[in-house]
Every structure is written in structure tokens, then in C-alpha cells.
Design goal:
By secondary structure, the protein is mainly alpha-helical. The protein folds into 3 domains: 128 residues, Alpha Horseshoe (Serine Threonine Protein Phosphatase 5, Tetratricopeptide repeat); 52 residues, no CATH class; 47 residues, no CATH class. 65% of the residues lie in helices and 0% in strands. It is built from 12 helices and no strands. The longest helix has 19 residues. The protein is globular. It starts with a helix and ends with a helix.
């Protein structure tokens, strides 16, 4: 079946799991049986956006990430496909990268079009950062974080056993900080051995650079920070 046939089959399929299967097949076949003269890029992009909604609901996002990354490169100013990529990355547990994508598209929109993110992007961003409402017993900690934000500066270390709610607490605090206009940057250690040295800081610096307008971003990337984030051979 061709790309278009698979997409039509997905749209008419009544079972969401089978519909997602057809979309996955269609997206995998796109580069094989479609030329730019027969299928516009927006058909591929639309299929990615629709498939992402199904995949997020079903917890089957891994297969959608490669075509979503491709669609995002094809349409760097399309808010719907960028929002889909952000939602997919968040569903896959890649919160730091999701925030980086949001920062990058927000900077591109401001730099190239002079506009702010629309509802689709803002909604995807809220999915990543909160707010989180199940912070039972964490009122004191959240109050301390709010006090630090109000004062404008400070350093807080949140520690505890796995599963006690550290990430949920920080998600709520960061959502409030975002609403106050703060730049929120996430860095995560990779599970297992073999994590590159200083990896969380590389994520943070990369996200900070991505949030800048293109001219300022190029200036910083030409210096030491740029070499740190993307070392040469």
C-alpha cells in the first residue's frame, strides 16, 4: 500500500490501536514511495500530527519520534507540528529536550515572524512543565521555592529517595516561575553507565542557547560555550 492508501486506511479505522499501526506504516513508507511532485510535504506533516495524538493516548510514542523530528525539520515554523514534537518528547520522558524544542521555536517565531507562541505551543508547553496538583505534604517546600522566586535569586537543592515527588515538586515550582517570566532550564542525568561528563549542564547550556534570537545565538555558539555544547572532531 502507498502512503496515501495507508493514511486513508488509518482515518477510516475504528480501532485506535489499528489506526495508529496504519499511520506508523504510512510514515515509514513516505520517503520510499512518494516524490515531492506527487505528495506535498503537508500531507506527511498532517499525518504526523494526527498520529501523535493517538500515540500519546496509547503510550506508544517511540515509533513516532523519528518521523516527528523529520516533520519538525521540514516545517520549523509550523506550530502544530512543533507542539506535537514537544508533547511526544514529554510523553517519552524526554522533558529537557521538549523544553529545548519549545525555547527554540519560540525564539524562531520572535526572530523571523515577530510573533509569540500560539495556543497549540503553549498548551504543549504546559503539559511539560505542569502545573501538578498531587503535592500532598509538600506545602512547606513549595512555599520555600516561591519565596526564592519572589526574592529574585538563590540556590535550592532538592534531595530525597526515588519516587518521593522531587520532580513533581520542581514541575509545579517551575510552572509558577514560567508564569512570572522566568527562563526555566532542565538538565537530566542519563540512566545507567556511560553518561558523558557534565551531561546535565550540557543540556542546560544547549537549551539556554536555543532560547536566544538567531544573531545572539550565533555569537555565543562561536565562543567557548558553543564548543562545549557541540565539540568539534
Amino acid at each position: 500500500m502507498t502512503f496515501r492508501e495507508l493514511v486513508r486506511a488509518a482515518r477510516t479505522e475504528q480501532r485506535p490501536d489499528l489506526a495508529l499501526d496504519r499511520y506508523v506504516e504510512a510514515l515509514a513508507s513516505w520517503r520510499e514511495d512518494v516524490s515531492p511532485f506527487t505528495t506535498p510535504d503537508d500531507e506527511f506533516i498532517d499525518a504526523c500530527v494526527t498520529a501523535t495524538r493517538l500515540a500519546v493516548r496509547q503510550g506508544r510514542i517511540a515509533q513516532l519520534l523519528p518521523p516527528l523530528h523529520l516533520a519538525a525539520r521540514m516545517a520549523p515554523l509550523d506550530e502544530h507540528v512543533q507542539a506535537s514534537l514537544i508533547s511526544a518528547l514529554a510523553a517519552a520522558g524526554q522533558r529537557a529536550e521538549a523544553v529545548t524544542v519549545f525555547r527554540a521555536i519560540r525564539a524562531r517565531l520572535a526572530d523571523e515572524l515577530g510573533v509569540h507562541p500560539g495556543p497549540a505551543l503553549l498548551g504543549a508547553h504546559r503539559e511539560v512543565l505542569g502545573p501538578v496538583h498531587d503535592l500532598v505534604g509538600r506545602g512547606r517546600e513549595l512555599t520555600l521555592l516561591r519565596r526564592m522566586f519572589a526574592e529574585g535569586t538563590g540556590l535550592v537543592v532538592v534531595e530525597g529517595e526515588p519516587g518521593v515527588g522531587k520532580t513533581r515538586l520542581l514541575g509545579e515550582a517551575c510552572a509558577e516561575a514560567e508564569q512570572r517570566g522566568a527562563l526555566v532550564l532542565w538538565g537530566n542525568c542519563l540512566p545507567g553507565d556511560g553518561t558523558p561528563s557534565m551531561w546535565p549542564w550540557l543540556e542546560v547550556i544547549g537549551a539556554a542557547l536555543a532560547s536566544l534570537p538567531a544573531v545572539a545565538q550565533a555569537e555565543w555558539q562561536a565562543g567557548e560555550l558553543g564548543r562545549l555544547v557541540a565539540p568539534g572532531p
